[in-house]
Design goal:
SH3 type barrels; Cathepsin D, subunit A, domain 1; single chain; four-stranded antiparallel sheet; mainly beta; 216 residues
């Protein structure tokens, strides 16, 4: 009987420990849109549509431009932008990413636009994040009804569509609602990481290294 009670107590302890661990997920709302949201779970960003779940089991039930309603461990919570639930608070360094200058003098990095993987070239002389129309089509970005502006490029002045990208990420540095230009054709071949992104992060260059760091 004592052995049975010991095993029962051990099983209950394991169950309680498991439940406690399940509740340690730290969830922060990093971006809000109609029908979708960017949830950061334990420091990792996920772009979710309503009804979708993260690998940690956090489900986005509803999203508007003002709040996200999530389900976590059977509990429903309503969060505003940059509001956090779960986990214990500990001050941490802002997200950052380090890039290395290439032989041609440029800095390149893989990253994500609307949670789709892309390749960026840092261009401090570019007013905006800029991509060509073929890349925009591949990423599913609607732009044909967007307003147009005249932009100066290495190939001369041209017209560009001005859109708002839901999210742009380089490494762990993620921004939402980033303005971008889309140019008809195949120029630029690589997406330019321009100042609509760079002006919103802290950028430092030392010798052949560049560091981009979130401001908060």
């Amino acid at each position: 009987m004592r052995r049975f009670c010991f095993y029962l107590s051990a099983a209950l302890l394991m169950l309680l420990t498991s439940h406690s661990q399940a509740n340690t997920h730290r969830v922060t709302v990093k971006g809000l849109f109609a029908g979708s949201a960017v949830l950061e779970v334990n420091g990792k960003a996920h772009m979710l549509k309503e009804g979708a779940s993260t690998p940690e089991g956090i489900t986005l039930l509803r999203a508007t431009s003002k709040f996200a309603q999530i389900e976590q461990n059977g509990e429903i919570k309503k969060l505003g932008l940059n509001r956090q639930v779960g986990g214990s608070y500990a001050a941490s360094e802002p997200a950052s990413v380090s890039l290395t200058r290439q032989p041609d003098g440029h800095f390149f990095s893989s990253g994500r636009i609307n949670n789709r993987w892309v390749e960026f070239m840092v261009d401090t002389g570019a007013t905006s994040v800029t991509l060509n129309s073929f890349t925009a089509d591949h990423l599913g970005i609607a732009y044909l009804d967007a307003p147009t502006v005249e932009v100066a490029t290495a190939q001369g002045n041209t017209q560009a569509y001005q859109v708002i990208l839901g999210s742009v990420a380089v490494g762990d540095v993620l921004l939402t609602n980033v303005s971008a230009f889309i140019i008809e054709g195949r120029f630029p071949q690589t997406i330019l990481l321009g100042n609509t992104f760079l002006s919103r992060v802290d950028m430092r260059t030392h010798n052949s290294a560049m560091t981009l760091q979130a401001k908060y």
